[in-house]
Design goal:
Blueprint lengths: L1 E3 L13 E4 L7 H9 L6 E7 L2 H5 L11 H10 L4 E6 L2 H5 L2 H13 L3 E5 L3 E2 L5 E2 H11 L2 E5 L3 E2 L2 E2 L2 H9 L3 H8 L3 E6 L6 H4 L5 E4 L9 E9 L6 E10 L10 E6 L10 E11 L7 H20 L2
Parallel strand pairs: 1-4, 2-3, 2-5, 3-4, 5-8
Antiparallel strand pairs: 6-7, 9-10, 11-16, 12-15, 13-14, 13-16, 14-15
Amino acid sequence: MQVFKDWNAIAAAARGSSVAMGNFDGVHLGHQSVIALARCAAPLGVVTFEPHPREFFSPGAAPFRLMNAEARANRLAKLGVQNLFELPFTPQMAAFSPEDFARDVLAGGLGVSHVVVGSDFCFGAGRKGKAADLAAMGREMGFEVTIAELILHGSREISSTAIRQALAVGNPREAAAMLGHWHRIEGEVIHGEKRGRELNFPTANMSVAGLHLPRFGVYAVKVDVLSGPQAGSYLGAASLGVRPHFGGAAPNLETYLFDFTGDLYGQHLSVALVDYLRPELKFDGLQSLLDQMAADCDQARAILAGV
């Protein structure tokens, strides 16, 4: 998959793409239905924005994103997207009128042949442009527009908000039912305090800065090591939170990979939350902590054997 971040400098081979457009936070089943409608004879593309417009307009708001840009790109590549147009959401982009965005960015800059959006899609300054407006502009500017209907999970619309709510109460399987895949946290393995190594449970530490945080606690996880000599798929147990037994700190994700030896510092991991095992706890001693960690791993192994 090719990634383009400058809408004024698009490779000739990427012009004429049939694109799905939106923020695609989570790349859930609703997003996937939009992308599916964009598949045709033209190259399959996705138009999205970085940072998320909500981050641009409310920089001090609590983190809400389900996935960072890296995780989103990885998921889109798995869906067969050939061209990812990751447009910088700048003051200039925010000020575009709906007509200017359609003419200058979609028709002129990207040269799209077909655009698919959800029925609730809004665009342009003040979110004045609606999906029906885009369809009318497309007819004038030379590209086709398809409006996708919203997808339901039971009687409820699938949305990033509903997925956040499921994760917040520690229900990753409910989130996965709406996502169509496991919820994953992706990023680089960073140096931590190395307590796990001292306890014979070495963990891969990852930052969760800027992300909506699922319920703190211990999870059974599936792990893809995306880079380095140990690249591959593993099972494990992970702790998400502030480590109250050791006095608390900034939230992070610490993942213990079963039956793994090696150094993962600097490598990129994708950690899928499969099941919530228990909340974070403060133990009355080191042995109590070690006993619980061993029990957590046994429980995670049993769960993951059936997944």
